[in-house]
Amino acid sequence: xxxxxxxxxxxxxxxxxxxxxxxxxxxxxxxxxxxxxxxxxxxxxxxxxxxxxxxxxxxxxxxxxxxxxxxxxxxxxxxxxxxxxxxxxxxxxxxxxxxxxxxxxxxxxxxxxxxxxxxxxxxxxxxxxxxxxxxxxxxxxxxxxxxxxxxxxxxxxxxxxxxxxxxxxxxxxxxxxxxxxxxxxxxxxxxxxxxxxxxxxxxxxxxxxxxxxxxxxxxxxxxxxxxxx
Length: 229
What we know:
Helix content: 25-40%
Number of helices: 7
Oligomer: single chain
């Protein structure tokens, strides 16, 4: 979900070249003064207003260092693929019976994966799953027969990136407790994914108009990005 704090960030932001990101990390961590393990958040505004209409980015980033969160993954599949899903680490696995539970409001999971054959039945629950951001999507790799890969990706730190109507994107690149190297790996993974998405969309000019880095309760820093992003 895009960060609700995005529009407040410029008021206390400080310009910093993105090439110096690794030097900024100690400062960001120093600003984490509360007792809980704060998230390190990247807030972006993309150039989604184009002559041929608005551009909506929706993709996933596989964070090489994970997210620091435990994700509960559910799988809807045929009985013959249940073992594969369970062996991959899925927390909940089911077929028609599980779909019925979802229909009745049992949404005790953060990520839902589905096989193509079962998606026909699951699609009828769009009004329940859609508003929660839980509807599986082939483009995001959550409608697939490769359940082992999909479950492991979801468990190991796969994050969805999607902009709102104003072009804002909010994504966590880790926690204060992460090593500097791991935060850098995740930071780079986000921008590598966005560069690929720019190539897949007819975007004129720079993709990213503004970028800010902050911790959950800390000061925000505006990043000066290269012109080709």
